[in-house]
Structures are given as structure tokens and as C-alpha cells.
């Protein structure tokens, strides 16, 4: 699935994304971040199993009906008692667009062009 999402990205952008995610040389590792990530993944899995969120593939398909460009970031957050997917796209012009969708109904909450 990741290959499918990244295939349209230019090689330079993929390199920059990968480089920015790599830990800094000489910086101490923070094992607490790994624990936080694992907890967030488990909470997301449980929310999906309980029907509180839709599968990510469905969210991406809905977002692509409203935004063109390459998907560069996805976050799942809980705000005011509901789950929200935040997706960022980079358009061919280089403009970054953030789209927020209700994770259960897939309704668009906010559409921001940076």
C-alpha cells in the first residue's frame, strides 16, 4: 500500500521525506516515542474494530474526490469526542492542502490551502 501511495511522488520528494524522518546522527534515541506510537496504533486499530472510524483506504478515496495531488501525511486525532483524519496533499503547483474529515461519516470538516 505504501508503494502505491508513494509511486506518483517525485524521487527527490521521496528522498527528502525519508531523510527528514531519519534520526539525527549523534542524537540520543527516544524509546518513549516508540511506545507512544505503538499505543496510538493500538488505539486506532481498536477504534476501527469498534466502528468509530472508517478504514484509511476509504478516507483517502473520499479525500481524492476533493483534492488533487500526492498524499504526503496522514494523522488520526481525537477532538471533541470524535475522531478526525487530517490529510495533507502537495499539489503539482507545490501548494500544500490540508483536508480534515470526520473519521466515521467521512464528512469534510475543514479544507485549508497553505
Q: What does this molecule look like?
A:
- This protein has 114 residues and is α+β, with helices and mostly antiparallel strands.
- It contains four helices and four strands.
- It has helices at 2-6, 11-21, 31-49, 56-64, and strands spanning 70-79, 82-90, 96-102, 108-113.
- The longest helix is centred in the middle third of the chain and has 19 residues, at 31-49.
- The chain starts with a helix and ends with a strand.
In brief:
The protein has 114 residues and is an alpha+beta fold.
Largest sheet: 4 strands, antiparallel
Binned strand content: 25-35%
Amino- and carboxy-terminal Cα gap: 27 Å
What is the CA-based Rg, rounded? 16 Å
Residue-averaged pLDDT: 78
Tell me the structural class.
alpha+beta
Helix content: 25-40%
The geometry reads as: globular
Topology at a glance:
Blueprint: H1 2-6, H2 11-21, H3 31-49, H4 56-64, E1 70-79, E2 82-90, E3 96-102, E4 108-113
Antiparallel strand pairs: 1-2, 2-3, 3-4
Annotation keywords:
single chain; 114 residues; alpha+beta; four-stranded antiparallel sheet; 39% helix; globular; disordered N terminus
Amino acid at each position: 500500500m505504501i508503494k502505491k501511495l508513494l509511486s506518483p511522488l517525485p524521487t527527490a520528494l521521496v528522498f527528502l521525506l525519508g531523510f527528514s524522518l531519519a534520526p539525527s546522527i549523534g542524537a540520543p534515541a527516544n524509546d518513549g516515542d516508540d511506545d507512544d506510537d505503538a499505543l496510538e496504533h493500538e488505539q486506532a486499530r481498536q477504534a476501527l474494530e469498534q466502528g468509530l472510524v472508517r478504514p484509511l483506504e476509504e478516507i483517502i478515496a473520499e479525500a481524492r474526490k476533493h483534492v488533487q495531488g500526492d498524499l504526503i501525511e496522514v494523522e488520526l486525532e481525537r477532538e471533541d469526542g470524535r475522531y478526525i483524519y487530517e490529510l495533507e496533499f502537495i499539489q503539482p503547483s507545490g501548494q500544500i492542502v490540508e483536508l480534515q474529515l470526520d473519521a466515521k461519516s467521512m464528512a469534510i470538516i475543514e479544507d485549508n490551502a497553505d
